[in-house]
Amino acid sequence: MKKDNYFGGIEVLTQDYINGFLIDTTEPNRKIYLKILIGEQIIGYTLANIEIEKLKNLGYEDNQCGFYFKFPKKLNTNELTNVKILPIDSNKTLKFIHNTYKHNNRNININKVPIDLKIKASNLSDLFIVNHIPKTAGTSLRTTFNDSFAKQNILYHYNSIGACSPEIWKWKFAQNQTISDIDIINIIIERPIYLIIGHFGFPEQFGFDNLLSIFPNAKSITFFRNPKDHICSLYLFSKKYFGESRSFEEYISLNYTRNYQTNALCGLKIEEFSFIGLVEMFSESIFLLNRKFDLNLKNVFFNINSENKINSHYNYSDFANSTVWKKFEEFNQSDIKLYNMIHQNLLQEAKKIPSVSIKKTNETKDYLNPDFLWAKSLNIYEWAKSLAYSKGPNNEILPPLPPSDIQSMYVGSDGYNSFLEANIFIEKMMNTISDHGLELNKNMNILDCGVGWGRLYRSMLRYFNHSSILGIDIDEKAIDICQNTMPNGRFSLISKTPPYKNLKESSFDIVYLYSVLSHLSESGFLSMFKEFSRILKKNGFLIFTTLKSAHLKVWESRINSVGYGSILKKVGFNYKKWEKQMKKGNFLFVPFGGGDSSRPSDYYGETIISEKYLIKACEKQKFKILLFEESDDLPQTFVALQKIF
What we know:
This protein has 21 helices and 24 strands. Strand 19 (508-512), helix 17 and strand 20 form a beta-alpha-beta unit.
């Protein structure tokens, strides 16, 4: 700080706040950022940008130079005597302004310059920084926090995608690796920002440890996941989105994947975090977060397992044999040790939470005796919002949701967008059925085939109650999710291929599937098609989707990609030739597989079923086509069939 460059100082210091003003006389329009310390400990930052009208009388047209900072807590006498405030680019502290202050050879009576404060400050005790380790329920946590923080007060740090939605200001330094600490402070103070969330644990991104060194009093949060489940999720994600072609054994041997979660902590010890939760105890973790920081994170439903068991989402034998898993354990000792430590800590805290059973609480009384007829008055957008928040516009209770990561894993999206897509599909289905003479009633028998975590099932609840709908799936975990979140629903595990012995002949009025037949080989499609003909009543309806003809261009774009490209070349994909085959009415299938060994590539992949092909298939199984529509409002082709006898 050059001599006489600054005019101003501290006017008031109390146990609750500090205020004053500061102007750079050589550059009056320059914004001045200040840091507040108690001794050598930084407790916050603020900006001298509050309007002081009377300073115009002193010749400063730009009079936005006042500062105000509310302390995180009421200070004691010893702390008050050690308070310091100084510009962040200087090591000289501001002094108290006395009755008169000499400036430009003029004696100014400072008491004649009252400060009308409008609070504009960022307090470190109000700042949450969440280190989202990839594939650890970060989407769920982000959604949970989004519901409690104003969008303009949130910054996302995702180097590859920037901000997650257009409403949120883009994270400025995600793309700038040379930005200074001062610039980061400036950005956060100006907004102000109360929540920072993102991926920090990689060299090309701004480190979590660095950020915490700037904001030492911020509340630091992260989530861990069972290391075996985490590597399974990471591997499947890499295969699906990055064309990972190595075997699972090769993948776990990479330096990049070893102790992945520990490395993402950027060298910090778990004791240095304000809170660490677990994916497997997500609801309990959110409850404890609320209690620890006096938050009101919403949409939390939990039921503590009295045996404190953590259920694995994956079948480990689908990925590797015991020898490979033993190698994994050798490579990931740090992750395993930390996970067990966090698990034990959370279990101890969870024991203090009053046990809650969804079936017994008064809060969920209406949910357990569901009548969602009130939802018929909502449009599809309002209904999607209600489902996404598990609460209607008048606080009507709706079934709780699984974590967003689980939602996305099954259907490729989560929350509001996921339900809006489901509602569009269901609305088309209901309109088509009504247009063709079926009168809806509570005694109808409806089959949700490939129910997953129950997205479409939930969407149907405003038309039918649980007793009318049966949800089936080949995935045991999917059925568990549905039964745990909708305990009074009807769900059943089925065999991986037809026939489905637990489904009676001519017993269903409606069968619907979304993004199921679009992933089956021709033999798989025909066997299911035959089964639907068996279980549907006369004049019953079969509603499903398949990939659009435009998906040919998606395949063409992947022809040279890692993983996908080799499979496309193996089946002889050629855009023009396959387009001709489609127009001729041939079945188009690329055997990409279904993501794990339980869904082999000879049966699962990506499928385009043309209308011409479907006409021939319907003749054999006694169906007629009511609608075959490639519209812009759904990502897949909508198909409606009716069984004619």
